[in-house]
Amino acid sequence: MDEGMLAKPRDVVDRDREWGLLTEFVTDPDPAMGLGIVSGRRRHGKSYLLQALSERVGGLYVTAVREEGRLPALRRFSDAIAAHAGLQPGTLRLADWREVLSNALDVTARSRTPLLVIDELPCLLQHSPEIPGLLQQLYDERQRGTGSGGPGARLVLCGSAMSVMHELLSGTKPLRGGAVIDLRLGAFDYRAAREFWQIDDPLTALRVHAVLGGAPGYRPVAARPHPSDGFAAWLTRTLLDPGRAVSSRTETEYLLREDPRITQHTLYYDILTAIARGATTPTKIGAALERQRNAVTHPLDVLESTGYIQREQDILRPRHPVITLTDPVIRFKQLITLPQAATVEQGFAEEAWQAAAPTFNSKILGPHFEDLARAFTRRYAHTLLPGGLPGPVGTTEVADPAARTRHEVDVIALALGERPQAPRTRIALLGEAKATAARRGTGDLQRLEHIRTLLTDQGHDTAGTMLALFSLHGFYPDLVEAAAGRDDLLLVDLATLYGIG
Question: Does the predicted model carry a pTM greater than 0.90?
Fold first, then answer.
């Protein structure tokens, strides 16, 4: 196929690696059937990407519908196959899923690039759990090719229910071992999100990312008014407007209903609230709910597998991981919308936001700025570090015996090749990221220097350690002057964080 025909469409933002991976898969000349899995959270752009791919190569794209039963789904899929074959709707009346899937693969096999995409597969499995087994049979039958001399069918299964999609290839599941592609589509990187939203001011971009993350599907429903016209005005007319579909309360309920394993919604909401209020371990979360630790273990595993929470390990020392909320919309709902629910429902969104602004700055913007500082270190700092690409990046606590205290380190990167929690590691970077209104000064630098000395005393290799200070509002002149004369100090303001200028 002409390479120009496979060029990524202009309306598909970012996703260069994913597009390249998928086009390589669908154009593979191997005569055997190939299977790919694409999963990702709602609003991450999976359908948009796969529809664009199908259009580029002339593939057959069919999506399941959550509210549709077995018979209507069979009829609609039959009509889609007929339309792809150039037949009139109603021409095909296929009786079961084996006939549907077999005919779909046969029809696409006539194309130069035989692609079949079944989107939102978990919706079909609710009423037709036999589909993975049937696909496995068809896959086995087509491993020797069709005999036509052309490439074999390329089947892509896609879905938003992360647990269901991940289980397709696990354990003794029928499709285990058959997939060539297992692509988990994440949200946009924070820099790509700023460009996608067309926000010039990096502080506004940071605030929007702190409440919506990088999911591209939010822009069509939350771009009016535009955040650049005023963050507060935008926020009160989107996430704090009960009449908008993107209202954090409505959106959170939809997100949690995506996964079929989340059935006791009240329990899951209570767990999310406990985490938002500062409970960071299963024991603390159980205590906040007046339940035993074991009662929250499974729900926490479910929330982690779906990407709503994460467990952050200390990079340097073994200890209980810290549990935090990762979905920005859910975090906003638990910390801002719920406490101000009565005020918001009465239509006083501006007043609710004024009351919640301190919580936003301390509990949302601050932690999010730290997250982006770590993301910057992982993805972009290698161009500024003498040692190039760093290894594992995370957080740690450093004991200070003389002062009888511990110092929290917002950003720590080990040297490439080092393992977390190993003794005497080489440390590539130590950083501090505080989303305060004040500029950073030499006192912040001295704190990092002291922590570096403590780590040296503990046996870690800090000879090549870079010190990094991340700031929302810049740096005092004496610190800037000091950085100019040193090769071990990196100052990262918002422009540097976002790669502007």
Answer: yes
Nearest Cα to Cα of residue 188 among 49, 309, 55, 302: 49
Token pair 């509002």 is found at 473
DSSP letters, 66-103, are TT--HHHHHHHHHHHHHHHTTPPTTS----SHHHHHHH
Q: Which residues of 131-144 are buried (b: 16+ CB within 10 A; e: fewer)?
A: bbebbbebbeebee
The pair of structure tokens assigned to 250 is 């409505």
Distance CA 172, CA 465 (A): 46
Q: What is the mean pLDDT of the chain?
A: 92
Residues whose CB is less than 8 angstroms from the CB of residue 47 and which lie 6 or more positions away in sequence, other chains included: 63, 119, 120, 158
264: left (phi over 0), alpha (psi -120 to 50) or beta: beta
Residue with tokens 């090719």: 145
Q: Which helix (H) or strand (E) holds 153?
A: none
pLDDT averaged per 10 residues, the chain (length 501)? 74 94 94 93 94 96 94 96 91 93 93 93 94 93 71 94 84 77 94 96 98 94 94 95 84 79 86 90 94 93 88 89 90 91 94 96 94 97 93 96 95 97 95 94 97 97 97 96 95 97 75
Q: C-alpha distances in angstroms, 48 versus 15, 19, 61, 384?
A: 11, 12, 11, 35
Residues 363, 274: contact at Cβ < 8 Å? no
| pLDDT value for 161 | 87
Q: Would you state the pLDDT for residue 147?
A: 59
Q: In angstroms, what is the C-alpha Rg of the chain?
A: 26
Here the contacts of 104-107 (C-beta below 8 Å, separation 24 or greater) are 104/60, 104/62, 104/77, 105/33, 105/138, 105/142, 105/153, 105/155, 107/60, 107/81
Q: CB atoms < 10 A from the CB of 401, how many?
A: 10
Burial class (CB in 10 A: 0-12, 13-18, 19+), 58: middle
Give the per-residue pLDDT at 439: 95
Judging by DSSP bridges, how do beta strands 179-184 and 34-39 pair with one another?
A: parallel
Residue closest to 324 by CA, chosen among 341, 307, 305, 311: 311
